[in-house]
Amino acid sequence: MTIEVRLERLKEGVPLPAYQSEHAAGMDLHAAIAAAVTLRPGDIRLIPCGFRMAVPIGYEAQVRPRSGLASRHGISMPNAPGTIDADYRGEVCVPLINLGREPFIVEPHMRIAQMVIAPVAHAKVMEVAALDETSRGAGGFGSTGH
User: Fold this and answer.
1) Which domains occur in the chain, in start order?
2) Does residue 68 sit in helix, strand or coil?
3) Distance CA 133, CA 32 (A)
């Protein structure tokens, strides 16, 4: 399935989101910064991506960490995955956090995150007096033994 997402470039020279392989689920997002940004361990910085977009109604854009940055350097997102709603029209920015032990340098135009376009289901909330019972019941974190 292919849908159209309209993008407006805000900063010249910064690559627009793009899939890196034929069957990739996510498009890479690039840092639209003029100079390198150093993330010390524990730092969180909002990195602009140099574009804004119109996600079609009925869809969202999910912004996720890049697995290579996370596994090699501890660079992630504090709100992963982040959601961009269909009615948002501001610049796309990515909050990066350094969970590693060493400073990490975000270079201009570096691939910093990935974006997945996904359908959204709206739920009808219904208040009830009681819920049906299940074998799991109220068992929470770790209650299934895994």
Assistant:
1) 6-119 (2.70.40.10)
2) helix
3) 51
